[in-house]
Structures are given as C-alpha cells and as structure tokens.
C-alpha cells in the first residue's frame, strides 16, 4: 500500500515538472496549446463578431458595381420584373435567362465566396468563445447569439441563391436542402434565446432577438413552400407574434404633403421605428448612383461620374399599382423627372422610373447619403408575413390576417374605406386572399429585392389579364421573359464550378 502511494505521488510530481518545463520552454508571446483557442479579452471577441456586420450578406446587400449594378438584385433581374441600363456584366445574361454564362458564373462565385467568408468567421467565433474564460458568461451568450444569427443569415442566403450546397466551402458534395435548413433553424432558435428583445436603437445598433425572429419567420415560410413543402406555417405565426405584441414597432404615418409621406420619411431615415434593423457601411458607393439614368452624368446639379438606372421597374411591375396608390406617385419609391439648369434655362428632364428612395434631400437638392445605410425588415413586411402565415396555418381567411394586410394597404391607399375593404377580403377564398397578400408584397417591398424569391417559393408569377387592369398569378412554368423564352425553372443560380477556397 505504501509503495503504491509512493509511486502515485512520484508520477504526479514528474507530470507537474514536465508541464512546468513545457510552459517554461514555450516561446514568449505564444499561447499554451490548452488555451490557444481562447479570446484573451472581451474586446478581442467583440471585434471578431463586429466583422460579421460587414461580411457576407450585409456587404452584398449594400454593394454596388459602377459598371454592372447590384449583385443582390440578381433574382429580380432574372425574373424580368426589374430591368437595368447596364450593358455589360451579369445583367444582360440574367435578363435573357442565360444563367450558365461566364459573367453569371463570376457573380455566382462572388456570392458563394462572400457568404462562406461570413459562415467561416462565425464558425471560428462559435468554436472559440466557449473556451474564453476572460469573457464573462453574459457576453459569451450575447456574442454567440450574434454569431449564430449571421451564420444562419448567410446559410439562408446560400440556400435561396443556389439551393443545395456543401456545408464546407470546398467540399465536393452538397448536403440536402432539408439538412441545411435544419442548421439554419437551429442557429436562429439559439440566437433568439441568447439575444435581447430590444429595438435597433435600444440595442446600440446590434442585432437583436426581433430581427432573428423576422429572419426565422421568413425561413419557415420558405420551408413551407417550394421545394421542401414542409408545413411550418404555425411556427412562422408563433415566431412573429412577439414582434407584433411588443409594441416597439409601428407603421410610419404620413405628414401633411406627399413630400412628407411615410415613404419619404422612411427614405430620409433608415433608422426609423418601422425598421427592425439597419445595415451600415462607412465606405463604398451608395445605391444612390443608380437613382438617375446614364444621361444624368451630364447634368450639372447631379454631379456624378457614375450614373445609370440599375433598378427600373418593368411595365408589368408598374401596372400592379393603382393610380391612387401613393407608392406609385412620382418621388415616392421612384421618380421620372428632374429639374436641370442649362445656362439661363431650367429644363425638366424626363426618364424611365428610377429609384428615388435611395436618395436623400429634397427637390433639386438630392444627394447620396453620407453614410451608406439600408433599413432591413420594415414592420410592413412583418405584417405581410403574418397575414400570409396565419392564413396558411388556419387554412382559412381570418380577421386578424385581413387586418394585417389592410394596415399596409390603407397606408398606401388611404382613400379606401376600411370596413368595405375588409368585408371584400373576408369574403375571399384562401387562394384568392393569398394572391392579394403576394401582390401587396410586390407593391410594398419592391425595393427589398425579394420578388424573385417570392416567385421561386410560391411557384407563381404575376400576369396581366389581356384587355384588363387585373393582375393574376400564373404558374412559373407558363411565364416568359421579355425576350420570349421561358423563365428558369427555379429562379436560382448554378453552384460555382470551382468554388474559391
């Protein structure tokens, strides 16, 4: 017994001496292997998470190319509902449905690389944060929640862009969409549990549980539609209700003139209470360079070296608005004239509709915003998601869904009588009501660039009834591009042939 105790004590002493010797021989400045994954300070961990705010989807959503246009607009370019003056790059090929062209391949690689950059950054943070005793438990939870939100956001972006894809950037095989969606859902559920239920302002410009809820609701809606057809409508309703019940968000109201409309207020203030979040970058071109036609480069009071209309609504898209709809009026979402000074003369230049919403200022004193900002998930979008999800989950037209849709419609068309409009909507069958919601999404969210995603998930495309102003939805398989050919079957991009490592 004494001999056994002596041997154990000796072994312990030898182990301690060896460990001390290893630590003593470790070069100065290197971290011991046992703690090499740890963040040394809270500030270091915070800085790693801050990178995610300017990587992947947030970066792509604000990126503008002086010659080609808007990478994030690829799906609406492909749908044919949005056109562009761009004569080079990916737009002409997307417009013609040529998704296998070299220029579209370049765009695919850009998106694939950017989204995976963010996913890998989030992977690293999530792996390291738990081994960081210098970061207190509360901060670890919050930072993990933010990292998981961004990992889910970028994984969802890959799914909507390519469908099935590898879980690792250079893996030769793709995972199933069902498996990838389960990863997205798990990350967002974890994020919601870890993040505070605060507004963008309250949370000091950081993502909160509210935007994570909005994203998860959108994920559930996508899962419930093509191609998975999983029934997640009840989950979508459940995840949206706390946003509606919080009382923290509201639709922006109109002022006394069209210049002070809700849409102009939102244009001037991307941090208005209607927005759940705001993406921000301090450098790079603003979307405002695409708010004028290319001929505007010669107008003295525009003063820009880059200008072309990269986001022009098609004739079909313009026709979905009624004449009374405030959003369709000039200098709301779009504009089509500008006062130009030519010597001693003032000339009104007229052009095809271009985005007015991406400018700041008023009248002839319009300009690009000083800080490149983009409001994300307006409360109006939350209401429209709720209306669709509730109708689908209940398999009938509920009053609560009708009220949510009407809140959005009546802001745009305040001349309507609410009770009469409500009675008409309540009398609709479920399919007819859903088409009203889809059409309202197209009208309200035209600048959010999600129309292509909506067409892909529902499998339906808007079409004008011959000899009538009525808009109906037809199967995507029956829709044709402006060049006369059929639209791509699922409105997606092909995976890059050789993903960038």
Automatic annotation (TrEMBL):
Record keyword Magnesium present: no
Keyword Signal: yes
Keywords: Cell outer membrane, Membrane, Signal
Residues covered by the RagB/SusD domain: 376-458
Origin: domain of life: Bacteria
Organism: Porphyromonas catoniae ATCC 51270
One Pfam family per UniProt: SusD-like_3
Localization (cell): Cell outer membrane
Protein name: Starch-binding protein, SusD-like family
Main location: membrane
Upper lineage: Bacteria, Pseudomonadati, Bacteroidota, Bacteroidia, Bacteroidales
Comp. bias regions, Low complexity: 483-495
Region of interest: Disordered: 479-501
GO CC entries: cell outer membrane
Family in the record: Belongs to the SusD family.
Every SusD-like N-terminal domain range: 108-221
